């Protein structure tokens, strides 16, 4: 299949088509969007998109500094920012949308479940805030 990569500081996703994997051509950005960069844009030290996984016809991406999980249709030819969709994460006993604590790894477990690695800290008001240490979070997506 295609080769996918994130560029964390610039908020970009790269896609190299399977047919081009053996060619010696530079990779071009498939999508650049503010939702994929750190909270203040592409700044040094502010990780944005930092992990991705393909599952059930969608590409899922975590943003480390924002603590978000996003999805997009990987078959789009020229996607834009409006093609990214925030995935609402709910947790039993928590009334608000869950913000992930510096997610930087993501893996497809099956057709409905993702495993996300959280480092347990992120930047708030220019300060590093610890949110309980590292953890693995399993996210089960609702199917409709």
Task: List its traits.
four-stranded antiparallel β-sheet, mainly beta, 0% helix, three-stranded antiparallel β-sheet, 12 strands, 144 residues, single chain
Verbal overview:
- It is a single chain.
- 27% of the residues are buried.
- This protein has 144 residues and is mainly beta.
- A hairpin with a 4-residue loop joins strand 5 and strand 6.
- The protein has no helices and twelve strands.
- It is globular and about 50 Å long.
- Helices cover 0% and strands 42% of the residues.
- Strands 4-5-6-7 form a four-stranded antiparallel beta sheet, with no helix packed on it. The protein has a three-stranded antiparallel beta sheet with strand order 1-2-3, with no helix packed on it.
- The model has no long low-confidence stretch (mean pLDDT 84).
Rg from Cα: 15 Å
Q: Proportion of β residues?
A: 35-45%
**DSSP E strands, number:** 12
What coarse outline follows from CA principal-axis ratios?
Answer: globular
Mean pLDDT: 84
Give me the strand/helix succession.
Answer: EEEEEEEEEEEE
Structural class: mainly beta
Main sheet record? 4 strands, antiparallel
Read across the widest sheet, the strand sequence of neighbours is: 4-5-6-7
- N-to-C CA distance: 26 Å
Enumerate the spans where pLDDT stays under 50 for 5 or more consecutive residues.
none
Number of helices: 0
Q: Helical residue percent? A: under 10%
